[in-house]
């Protein structure tokens, strides 16, 4: 057995807004000092900055595990009959916690899609939510772990009012691991023992989580201040110590907790390493690329040329471009489009035009121009800027020329 473990349930200050004061980098540095081999990010409901996190973890020699602590709801809407005798839909704030970890690059995509959906107006209710049905439809590219005391598995026996026992059994069968924790609280002790029983019944492994929220006790104090500012106060704080634990500290805490036999919790700790080994690592493509809007770079390029021509005609028709300047515009547009083609920038111009037009149509102020793009007449014609370069004597080659090919920003 390895004398270490993997922290796979962890919150940092960026993602879990107002639920942690510790930076991701602080955790990674500490985990690296402790000789840990992997580390996961599981902020509440979303995984912002996951590429930065992955690159940083890898720079310290750790495997990065991309995940979230999701909010699950049995159903989005409930129905009731209102006082006028009509049926009315309403939402229930039953947001259960569940850890979802991407097993590979496909899992990352799948997780991102699930997160996207969880934010739409139907799904969101106080928190971004995933329905039980959507959860049951997640593929094997996602590892499902039952999470903390707020897990749907904790709705056992008569505590469960939100869904029936068939759904409950389905949950028990669907999770890859049942999560136990080391906190010395009566609730956690009972829950660990219950999960141990279920793990034998359903033949599922237990896995040990730390639900880490702070790197040390100072940062835990800072977090407490944040929590108080949100109106949440703790009474039994000593029971819920969420600071970073080394392997030895974790084992000691479990010895003290005495919820499970030693060989059972040691196995649950070892399962964090086994689980991390099943994660298939992949390299990020860090080369900058432009977004593709219409299916391929080629079709985007064609689209921008078409776009420029039709917007040019429109501006001439409306008198925005005076008749005596039409020929000079035509000449400049032709030249610019050929440079964009050579420097592979037509697709970029299309995406900028779409973005700026969208901002304008939604009342978002964008200013007359940004940096060297003020030198482009194409940019003026396609509404990326409101500045005509000839009128203001700005130079196209400052913005784009064949001898200086670099990504626009
Ligand atoms: Zn939780
Ligand atoms: Zn958590």
Write up what this structure looks like.
- Helices cover 42% and strands 12% of the residues.
- With 409 residues, it is α/β, with parallel strands linked by helices.
- Strands 1, 2, 5, 6 and 7 form a five-stranded mixed β-sheet that branches. It has a two-stranded antiparallel sheet with strand order 3-4.
- The model has no long low-confidence stretch (mean pLDDT 91).
Structural class: alpha/beta
The appropriate CATH architecture of the largest domain is Alpha-Beta Barrel
Name the bound molecules: zinc ion
- What percent of residues adopt helix (DSSP H or I)? 40-55%
Which range does the strand content fall in? 5-15%
H/E topology pattern = HEHEEEEHEHEHEHEHHHHHHHHH
According to CATH, the fold-level topology of the largest domain is: TIM Barrel
Tell me the span between the first and last alpha carbons: 49 Å
- What is the tally of beta strands? 9
């Amino acid at each position: 057995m390895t004398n270490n473990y993997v922290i796979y349930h962890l919150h940092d200050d960026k993602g879990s807004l107002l639920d942690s004061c510790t930076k991701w980098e602080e955790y990674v540095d500490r985990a690296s000092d402790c000789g840990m081999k992997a580390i996961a990010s599981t902020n509440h409901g979303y995984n912002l900055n996951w590429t930065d996190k992955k690159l940083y973890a890898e720079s310290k020699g750790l495997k990065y595990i991309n995940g979230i602590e999701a909010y699950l709801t049995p159903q989005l809407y409930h129905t009731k009959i209102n006082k006028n005798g009509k049926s009315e839909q309403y939402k229930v704030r039953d947001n259960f916690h569940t850890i979802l970890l991407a097993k590979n690059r496909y899992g990352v995509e799948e997780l991102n899609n699930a997160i996207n959906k969880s934010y739409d107006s139907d799904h969101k209710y106080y928190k971004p939510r995933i329905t039980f049905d959507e959860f049951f439809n997640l593929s094997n590219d996602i590892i499902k772990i039952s999470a903390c005391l707020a897990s749907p598995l904790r709705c056992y026996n008569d505590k469960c009012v939100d869904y029936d026992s068939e759904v409950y059994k389905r949950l028990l069968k669907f999770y890859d691991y049942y999560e136990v924790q080391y906190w010395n609280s009566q609730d956690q002790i009972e829950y660990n023992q219950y999960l141990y029983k279920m793990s034998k019944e359903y033949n599922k492994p237990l896995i040990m989580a730390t639900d880490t929220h702070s790197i040390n006790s100072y940062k835990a104090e800072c977090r407490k201040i944040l929590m108080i500012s949100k109106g949440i106060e703790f009474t039994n704080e000593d029971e819920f110590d969420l600071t970073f634990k080394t392997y030895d500290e974790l084992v000691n805490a479990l010895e003290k907790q005495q919820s499970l036999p030693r060989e059972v919790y040691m196995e649950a700790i070892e399962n964090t390493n086994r689980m991390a080994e099943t994660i298939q690592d992949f390299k990020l493509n860090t080369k900058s690329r432009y977004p593709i809007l219409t299916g391929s770079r080629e079709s985007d390029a064609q689209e921008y040329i078409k776009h420029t021509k039709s917007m040019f005609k429109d501006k001439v028709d409306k008198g925005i471009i005076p008749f005596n300047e039409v020929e000079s515009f035509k000449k400049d547009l032709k030249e610019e489009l050929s440079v964009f083609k050579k420097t592979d920038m037509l697709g970029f111009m299309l995406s900028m035009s779409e973005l700026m037009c969208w901002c304008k149509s939604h009342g978002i102020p964008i200013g007359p121009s940004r940096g060297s793009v003020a030198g482009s007449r194409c940019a003026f014609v396609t509404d990326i800027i409101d500045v005509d370069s000839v009128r203001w004597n700005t130079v196209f080659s400052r913005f784009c020329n064949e001898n200086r090919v670099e990504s626009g920003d």
